[in-house]
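Contributing: when you submit paired examples, paste them exactly as shown. First protein:
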Amino acid sequence: MSKNAKIAAGGVAVGLLLLIWLPWWAALLIVLGVPAAAYLTLDPSQQRRLRRATRKELGR
């Protein structure tokens, strides 16, 4: 299993646990809010590098 697949599986597991313990709207806020907050903490140059890498992976 690749590193990205392990991260994705862990994210799904955490999301399911949150849905069990919290109301669905609170779990949704956490699942969407944590990556958004992490992205906003990056420098502008790091954000550009991340967007550029994502476009290359998509084949654009």
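Second protein:
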Amino acid sequence: MLPELPPLPALTRAEGELIDRYLEAVDLLGRVNPAHDGDTYRGLRAAQALVRKAAELRDALASMHRRGETELHGDTLARALRVLDGERRAARVALPPDGVG
């Protein structure tokens, strides 16, 4: 049986949208990372999708701003990212240890 995940912190709808779009963009950046082995077509497809996801991320932030949500609450949003496996997902964007591709 899998361990129970901690609950997501309370987020506004716009904050939830921001987190979702951010993680989608991170996942795509991880697929494009030239420091990882893979074929160029896979990276090309991820880069093409990244353009759309970046626009959706921008729109999520613009929506927050229009609604008067002008401040990002880093601690709360970081907790949400951790619950959604954001640390592992973001690690694919970084350079791997020397000698690992």
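If you have annotations for the second protein, write them as plain sentences, like these:
Helices lie at 13-32, 40-66, 74-83, 86-91.
The mean pLDDT is 92.
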